[in-house]
Structure formats: C-alpha cells, structure tokens
Amino acid sequence: MSNSEPEQVVVRKKPSRGIYLLPNLFTTGCLFSGFYAIVSANAGNFEAAAAAIFIAMVLDGLDGRVARLTNTASEFGVQYDSLADMVSFGVAPALVMYLWAFSDMGKLGWVVAFVYTAATALRLARFNTQAEVADKRFFQGLPSPSAAAVVAGLIWLGVDYGIEGKDIAVLAMVITLFAGLLMVSNFRYYSFKDIDFKGKVPFFTLLVAVMVFVFISLDPPQILFGIFMLYLVSGLVLTIWGIRQKRTLRAKEAD
Q1: Predicted local confidence at residue 196, as pLDDT
Q2: Which letter, b or e, does each residue of 129-156 get, where b requires 16 or more Cβ atoms within 10 Å of its Cβ?
Q3: Is 84 in contact with 34 (CB distance < 8 Å)?
Q4: Bridge partners (DSSP) listed for residue 188
Q5: CA distance 186 to 147
Q6: Residue 45 pLDDT class (50, 70, 90 cuts)
Q7: 21-254 has which CATH code?
Q8: Spatial contact of 53 and 34, defined as CB atoms under 8 Å apart
Q9: Quick one: pLDDT at residue 70?
Q10: Over the stretch 119-173, which tens digit does the pLDDT of each residue have?
C-alpha cells in the first residue's frame, strides 16, 4: 500500500470564446463608419468622409471601454476590433486622402497612400503581439486612430476653408507620411488607459468634460486637427524628455 498522497489534477480554464453583442456593436459601427468614409470620398463628399473617420474613432474608443466595464471582453472581440481598425484607420484615411489630394500625382500618390496603409497594418500587428507585456500607460508608436485623425483632420480643415487637396498635395503628402512613420516608430504616447471610469469623479471633472465638448463644437475641423497634431508632437517631446532624464540619471550615478 503506497503512502504517497494522491496527485492533484489541475483543471485549467479555457479562455472565453463567447461573442458578446454590446461591445461588438460598437466595433461594427466603427467598421461601418470607415466604409462610409470610403463611399463618401468616392462620391466627392470629403467633409462627410472625414467626419465619418472621427466617428469611427469615437466608436473604437467605446467598444473596449464597454467590454471592460461590462466584463464582456473576448478574444473574438479583440480580433474583430483589429480588423475594423485596419479598415477605418488604415484603408479609409489613405483612400480618402488619395482621392482628395494625390489622385493627380500618378504613382507617387498611390505609393504614399499605400505606405500609410502598410504602416497601419504593421502598427496593429505589433500592438497585438505586445499587448500582454507592454506598459499599459503608454503606446509604442502613434496609435492608428490618432494618425487617422490627423489625416482626416487635414482634409476636413481644407474642405472647411475651401482649399483643394491638389493645391496642398505636397503638405498633405508630408503629413500623411509622417503620421504613417510615427505609427511604426518607438516614440511613446500616453494611452490614457489609467483613467478610472468606474470610480467617482469630482463635479468639476464632469464640468470640464462638458466644456471640452462645447469648445470642440465651436469649430470641429480646426480644433480637432489642432488637438491631434498636439498629441502627435507630444510623443516626440515625451520620448526625448525621457531619454534626457535617463542620461542625466546615468551621469549622476557615474559621478
């Protein structure tokens, strides 16, 4: 008769594969907005196309938040979200910008649009593979919704001021390429994911949020383009400041 204790059987939980309706409805809305942007641009309605990309960005921000708040996150939702992002923040901004500013530039025009699209795909693939180990407070590279907001913001601003895309094709090309390259860069961008939406907030915080929406409504194209350009620059400043801080610390340790 053996005196050894019986072996314990460890039952591992399989990851949830359920498909939850609420967060995936927001993701579908994001995908539809990107598709609508492409259709609108083909019809020559660039203002609606740019606005649709911004709506997609709002819906993309909501699907993940809703999934976490309602505990309905799933692997299906993660993959679906990435595919929707590729359409709404990769293909749609590139095609809308191509039709608005690059269509008369020949091969150079579609190459620039493709570089932006490929950068979005690479950005999303890197994000998905590093999601478990990356610092949640920061993004590595410019997030694809923010890059799309810069591109769409330029288009919306141009339409609002009556500027033809072909007249500023060189500027549009520089901004599109810069936004695309920043997506696959190592510059760090604050993610805002450490903001607690479940806990209580002071009344003043809610008042500030309301005032921000009112401020944006005064001149959406100009203010939104300005906000996302500042966010684009913030990653450069944050990264350079961090490098300088590390060098200063090393110099002090060496003394």
Answers
A1: 65
A2: eeeeeeeeebbbbbbbbbbbbbbbbbbb
A3: yes
A4: 140
A5: 15
A6: very high
A7: 1.20.120.1760
A8: yes
A9: 85
A10: 999 999 999 898 777 778 889 999 999 999 999 999 999 999 999 999 999 999 9
Residue 247 CA, distance from chain mean position: 31
Which residue from 53, 34, 180, 44 is spatially nearest to 112, judged by alpha carbons? 180
What is the spatial distance between Cα 219 and Cα 201, in angstroms, rounded to a whole number?
28
Per-residue tokens: 167: 């007249």
Taking the CA atoms of 30, 100, 215 and 226 in sequence, report the sign of the dihedral they define: positive
For residue 74, the SS3 value is coil
Percent of the chain with pLDDT over 70: 89
Enumerate the domain spans of the chain. Answer: 21-254
pLDDT at 245 over 60: yes
User: Which amino acid, one-letter code, is at 195?
Assistant: I
Output the six-digit token pair for 72. 């309905």
**Rounded to the nearest 5°, which phi and psi values hold at 71?**
55, 40
List the one residue out of 147, 136, 228 whose CA is nearest residue 190. 136
| 16 half-sphere exposure, CB direction, 13 A CA radius | 9
Number of Cβ within 10 Å of residue 245's Cβ equals 10
- Are the beta carbons of 161 and 222 closer than 8 angstroms? no
State residue 8's pLDDT score: 45
In the chain, what's the furthest Cα-to-Cα distance?
Answer: 91
Residues linked to residue 139 through DSSP beta bridges, in sequence order: 189
Residue 194 pLDDT class (50, 70, 90 cuts): low
Q: What is the DSSP code (8-state) at residue 167?
A: G
Structure confidence at residue 122 (pLDDT): 97
Contact 51, 156 (CB under 8 A): yes
> What's the pTM?
0.87
